[in-house]
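Write out the bound-state structure for 2'-monophosphoadenosine-5'-diphosphate.
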Amino acid sequence: MSKTFAVIGDPINHSLSPNIHSAAFRELDLDCAYIGYRIPKGELEEGIQGLKKIKISGFNITIPHKIEMMKYVDKMDESCSLIGAINTVTNNDGVLKGYNTDMDGFLEPFKKKELKIKDSKILLLGAGGAARAIVAGFAKEKASSITIANRTIENANNLSEFAKKIGLKANAIKIEQVSDSAKDYDIIVNATSVGLKNESSPISLEGIREKTIVYDIVYMPMNTDFIKKAKDNKATIIFGYEMLLGQATRAFEIWHGVEAPYNVMKKALLGGF
Ligand code: ATR
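---
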């Protein structure tokens, strides 16, 4: 019997997920469909009832429902309780189980490119939901320390406390305080939303060491000003689309139990730009 999958959120019309998953279905000859379904804020409960009614096999969750979704699953993978949000759900005969693939998706490009995290000094810009999953990833991979730089210092402090609780040496600063200290880090990650609207880089990358790993989680546009500045300074780049692809392949493997066709999914994703 054919299976249906979905991504829910608002807005949803620009989502690249239907293209990415549909390409994988074609490649592996799976009798499946993947749709974008707009559920406005405040209508999540009814939206999920609708999805259950059509016997949805699984779905992804994006802004603004990732945290609220925790209320509506029957079971949760430990990734959800750690990160405090759900972005992937399986439906087995009406029993919903939640997963969070942000952490694995974030780590995937490091694995693919054999880039080392262990014992590295990290600078993380941002302290929102995505940043929390990233902190969990760096703790798992045993980074040496993390500095969390954010516009609102309270949020940076809270995330720094979380980092310490899960075994990472951490401190918090305001983003303006980074200035030329960016050169002291092995890995610099932008987990703010700055760049989505073509804004200039949230920090200067002048003078960073060659081969510093610079990772932007903003994937649209692909070449943010932050990425351009990193290239000018001869950094090793990880693009936001690589994290997106890491999340999509992980979700695919949770749902279908077979290895995701990475290259086909990458081609479909890049075709969307
Ligand atoms: P996400 O789920 O993508 O992480 P979020 O939880 O809303 O989204 O977090 C957005 C992040 O981008 C936050 O760190 C936010 O900083 P604040 O904690 O100060 O709100 C950061 N951010 C958003 N707009 C920004 C801007 N114009 N300048 C600097 N940081 C910004």
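---
The first helix runs from residue 17 to 28.
The domain at 3-100+243-271 is CATH 3.40.50.10860 (Rossmann fold).
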